[in-house]
Design goal:
Low-confidence stretches: none
Organism: Dehalobacterium formicoaceticum
Number of strands: 11
Mean pLDDT: 87
Protein name: Rhodanese-like domain-containing protein
Number of domains: 2
CATH architecture of the largest domain: 3-Layer(aba) Sandwich
CATH topology of the largest domain: Oxidized Rhodanese, domain 1
Pfam family, one: Rhodanese
Keywords: Signal
Structural class: alpha/beta
Distance between the termini: 104 Å
Number of helices: 5
InterPro entries: Rhodanese-like_dom, Rhodanese-like_dom_sf
CATH superfamily of the largest domain: Rhodanese-like domain
């Protein structure tokens, strides 16, 4: 009799454990997959999606077609723009993979002097931003550049750079202040920022 009772109790405990597991799964208490964040460069834009080439090794895919129909956008989307994207964990296998965007944020894009020169000479309007001191600017600057010293960005950016979606190319003397300025402008809401380093590496002419 006692043996039967022990067997019955074990069976009851076994079914109780199964019931608890099923209850957890059905109530959504099971651990959920986390959202995925990666960085990339926009290659193409359609009405509800963007094609992105992934930079870095944060994901297993090198390109993604991102559904942006319901994504929060903190950037004006343009081809060539560097972005950080958070997506849902569900990845639909294809090439490129298809994913659903949650949030899109701008990132500072580091470019070479040659790439900056090509942008300046191109058809699209750009702002060349010099973030050195006034005395450095007067000693020699890139033709057409606008002076906004790094230390004055917080106070004067809205006046000097009223369009937060404009394409801004930033330089300083050696590249340190330009990187700081690019980061600050992005934090202030500017969406299309490029850092091309220092004027000491600018192989083209300057003016006084």
């Amino acid at each position: 009799m006692r043996i039967r009772m022990r067997i019955r109790n074990k069976i009851n405990r076994h079914f109780l454990m199964i019931f608890c597991v099923m209850l957890l799964l059905s109530s959504g208490c099971a651990q959920k997959e986390e959202n995925i964040t990666f960085r990339g460069v926009i290659e193409d834009i359609t009405e509800n999606s963007i094609l992105v080439t992934v930079t870095g090794d944060s994901t297993d895919f090198d390109k993604a077609s991102v559904d942006i129909s319901h994504a929060e956008r903190k950037v004006q989307l343009s081809v060539g723009q560097g972005v950080e994207i958070t997506i849902l964990p569900e990845i639909r296998e294809s090439y490129p993979v298809q994913v659903t965007g949650i949030e899109i944020r701008p990132i500072n894009q580091k470019i070479s002097a040659q790439e900056a020169k090509a942008m300046i000479d191109g058809e699209e309007e750009v702002i060349i931003l010099d973030v050195r001191t006034r005395s450095e600017y007067q000693a020699g600057h890139i033709e057409g550049s606008v002076l906004l010293p790094n230390t004055e960005i917080k106070e004067k950016a809205a006046q000097v750079l009223p369009d937060q979606n404009a394409k801004i190319l930033i330089y300083c003397r050696s590249g340190n202040r330009s990187a700081q300025a690019a980061k600050l402008l992005l934090e202030m809401g500017y969406t299309n920022v490029y850092d091309f380093g220092g004027i000491i590496d600018w192989p083209y002419g300057i003016v006084q």
